[in-house]
Amino acid sequence: MSQRSSPEALGPLVPAMTAWRRDIHAHPELGFEEHRTAALVARELEAAGIEVTTGIAGTGVVGTIRGTGMVEPLRGAGMVEPLRGRAGNRAIGLRADMDALAMTEVTGAAYASTVPGKMHACGHDGHTAMLLGAATFLAANRDAFAGTVHLIFQPAEESLGGAKAMLEDGLFDRFPVDAVYGLHNLPGLPLGIVAVPKGPVLASSDTWQASFTGRGSHGAKPHQGTDATLAAAQFIAALHSIVAREVDPLRTAVASVGHIAAGNPRAPNVIPSEVHLAGTARALAPLERDLLERRIGELAHGIAAMHGLVADYRYIRRLSPTVNHPAQAALAYRAALAAMGEARDDHPPITAGEDFSEMLLARPGAYAWLGTGDPPHPDGQHHNPHFDFVDAALAHGAAWWCSVVETELG
Question: Is 325 annotated as a binding residue?
Answer without folding.
Answer: no
